[in-house]
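User: Before I run my own analysis I want an independent prediction to cross-check against. Here's the chain; please return only the structure tokens and, at the end, one sentence I can use as a sanity check.
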Amino acid sequence: MTAATHSTLFPRVPETADAVLDGLDPEQREVALALGGPVCVLAGAGTGKTRAITHRIAYGVRAGVLQPAGVLAVTFTNRAAGEMRGRLRQLGAGGVQARTFHSAALRQLQFFWPKAVGGELPRLLERKVQLVAEAAARCRIRLDRNELRDVTGEIEWAKVTQTVPADYPAVVAKAHRDAPRDPAEIGQIYATYEQLKRDRSVIDFEDVLLLTVGILQDRHDIADQVRRQYQHFVVDEYQDVSPLQQRLLDLWLGDRDSLCVVGDASQTIYSFTGATPDHLLNFRTRHPGATVVKLVRDYRSTPQVVHLANGLLSQARGRAAEHRLELISQRDPGPEPVYAEYADEPAEAEGTARRIRDLVAAGVPAGEIAVLYRINAQSEVYEQALADAGVPYQLRGAERFFERQEVREAGIALRGAARAGGNDSLLDDAEDLPAQVRAVLSTKGWTTEPPAGSGAVRDRWESLAALVRLAEDFARARPGATLSDLVAELDERAAAQHAPTVQGVTLASLHAAKGLEWDAVFLVGLTEGMMPITYAKTDEQVEEERRLLYVGVTRARVHLALSWSLSRSPGGRPSRRPTRFFKGLRPGSGALGALAPGRGGPGSVERGGAEGRRRPRGPVRCRVCGTTLTEAGAMKLMRCEDCPSDMDEGLYERLRDWRAGRAGELGQPAYCVFTDKTLMAIAERVPATGGELASIAGVGTRKLNRFGADVLAICAGEEGGAGVGED
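Assistant: Structure tokens:
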């Protein structure tokens, strides 16, 4: 194969260990070369962390430092594990185990159960919802569909935090966790659920980890056998480990420190499942001699997108925020992020669909566009709008690509055609490999043009079209490849769950989008109550919502749009406000400081809505969220009263103390000097001149002459003001 025919989809296997290091930046190279002792990689979004750790493993294997069978790389999703296996195979390190925590534990449990316990391993319960429903019924507790889902999630949380049913109410209270039902009731359902599992000899996914931990703790001979098998561990997305997963990792390691962890505390978004960044943040405390490498060169996003992402985190609070990484874009400048306000949700969906249609017409592939929302219930209006606009889409979270019925059927047909070779009449007129694949898949529903509309027929066509595109890429990368070669490649990809891309706009929740990226991302429904979500009450919960928005922003490579609607339905009261997280980032919401030229700005704001339907403009708009102000108090503050305030609290208190003294001297009520609202407006805007002070509602010419010198002196930090002013 020559360089001209080489494909990035099917790269050439490096010829030597040193060749594995080619193309790595200095920090990634440092990761790859750090093969001894504990290693902690703090990797920001888009900085090539998977590239760094897979090249590290491959370099160690190719250099003879690591034995392929002795390396266990663990991550959190089958997709991520499949991607890791695919990359390792392309780097010549195909024998390395790359699995999820659950998959690795299940293999060990199946192998050691007969020796440790005896008999066959209990059957694995694929879905626990039905058994939880039965447990609730036995406790005479009625749960609707949403409550059933939430209680099931609580049981999962309790198990990964190693909380037994009897302790659940106390642990929930101590953790200040909002339980979906009375904690005593959930504890009762949890206990009954566990009893039902024992009665029926079944286990759930959390039991896989718990039982593996139990065996490794109790049977030192088995623990020693596992440690002889695996001498080196790599953990991806380490900020998402639960206490139970960390306990399992500790048992795998024993007293060794041959461990590499990779993570980013600013992308911790699964605390509701028991995940915690504490293990990542405490890594150097537990391993004082650890090598720590920071990856901050962002290869994914333009400077404009990176600037917005950095701006979001610059306002963050809490321990994770103290360890935030300031990303540096390595890409050429692109368009500014676009902010769009709509009258209602249907108008927002229609406007988003129109923008997407325009992007597709301009050459952006539909598969490189995503619409991301806070909760799955928001998807329906976007599904309808995209269908009406004739734009194909796919819902994230469906079954795995190679498990779809049409893909399995296509694989059988391709395998049969490969065996038949020249004896298959379907292939008579097919001149090359892609033509052969198109001929075979035409019998399964593939056509040169996609079917109209959406639904199951369109989904089936998209799957088959993905296989056709894969065959075209494979043929370009490997001229002369046969149908049998392609079938072998599909088998390897199926084993690794390394799926090709289905060409359609992705609709997904922000949580489901973690680890993915697109050329264009539309973040929709960004209103208070949805972002942050209404049940985010504590500071920690609100900060996790901010990190969730950060994850959404950093999914975009080039185009980024952020939108919200003022009401739910057409004609509704326009009472919604855009998220507080926009403060200082979008026009009209205050400033975070000077913007670096060419490194991204605050973007632009567009007003959208259904055609022919416009919101009337009021005389004054909120400087935080842009909403029209009608109440006198809000107009004085130049913001909605419940919008976030950037008031200088110390200045406000000094002004109040000064006002009390002046009111006493004048023998008048305090509000006759300045009202509370006027003092708040002064403390928020901190005027430096008489003109700036006079521009604040409530400070007329008379009060400016009477009290202006005092107020300006206090704003300038002078103790006690400049004097009493005129009476």
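Sanity check: The CA atoms of residues 302 and 331 lie 5 Å apart.
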